[in-house]
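Troubleshooting entry. Yesterday's outputs looked truncated, so today I'm pasting the complete records for two proteins to confirm everything comes through intact. If either block looks cut off, that's the bug. Protein one:
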Amino acid sequence: MTPGRWFIAIAGNIGVGKSSLTALLSQRLGWEPFYEAVDENPYLADFYRDMPRWAFHSQIFFLSRRLRHHYDLLQRPHSVIQDRCVYEDAEIFASNLYHQGAMSERDYRVYRELYETVVRILPPPDLIVYLRASVPTLLQRIRQRGREYEQVIDPSYLARLNDLYEAWAARFDRCPVLVIPTDNLDFVHEPQHLDIIIDRIRERLAGKEVLHLPSTRSAPPEEGSQ
């Protein structure tokens, strides 16, 4: 992208606060937001009730929407923020479904072939901001936002996703990844926490390494950066 025109994506597990941070960054920075199409997915409620039956359908819906959003936002003449990136669909969610037996070998092979073909020709974001949170924090935030179909999510499912996120963030090399621990971070109600995240994003986009954040209740704990 041209200088001063940025494409960043907010990544992280279910309930970690991606949509909230996307909205706040959009308001503060004047960047256009692209939100995850969760409420538009016609398979999602069925998926949470019967994952093996509906996993392929749900993942194909998310992949198609994310690919369309990724392409659309690359056409924008101004900076954009994406709520969840296309890489998470395949590397985290589809991979987890396949390895836990909820997606068949045939379905997973077709899904991966589609994903790998398209991402090879799509330019990556300038930066991915990965929001990290423990399972208890995720469960608390899921309860607070009150989506009925999410209340049945198994904590072990969130734990498996967390493990996949950590492995993915450590090996991902298509663009820089800025890791933000959020267990003690309330960027929705604490403006200084949002200020810290914005400062770190600006520093990372400027090519500076971001290695540590203050480890206090009023600021996020230690942060990693790849």
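Protein two, checking that the full record survives here as well:
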Amino acid sequence: MFDNLNKYRIVLASNSPRRQELLRQLGLQFDVEVKRGIDESYPPMLEATQVAEYLACKKAEAYRDDIAAGDIMLITADTVVVCDGAILGKPHDEREAFAMIRKLQNNSHLVVSGVALTTADRRKSFSVETRVSMRPMTDVLIDYYIVNYKPFDKAGAYGIQEWIGLAAIDHIEGSYHNVMGLPTQRLFEELSQF
């Protein structure tokens, strides 16, 4: 299916089990290699919807020396949740997760995933936006979700594929898989043309 990529060893630079599963479902053979301590800061004046792509490219730069041999294609990605113009990252604790979900409930927000495809001599980056609307939730339901699903590794403190997606997501405009953290349709298109 991806004959154009046969000369590359594909490396996913992400510990995300969701991204790994989605790549497997696309039919890609890949290795997972993750560097610790990559600086994920971004310029404060950067538009919120541009942050995910900026960070995906910044992560790719951390691997620059590893892909110099020319036989590796690196896939890096980042996902942010943007609500009322503010970026909601991964919560550090239950209190922060509660505040994030409280802000998202009875509101709509954007989920933006940025992806960078990098080889020794080429980089292609892109981002995809999905609008998500969440119905009103009581504090008891928010607590139930946080206690039972511990969404501390998820931007915006929720995973659409979990209970909260079944019970509280009213509708989405755009890619469901983008909300999970990887815009698979666009990625398939870009990999096919790389």
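Both blocks look complete. Sanity check on protein two: The longest helix spans residues 51-61.
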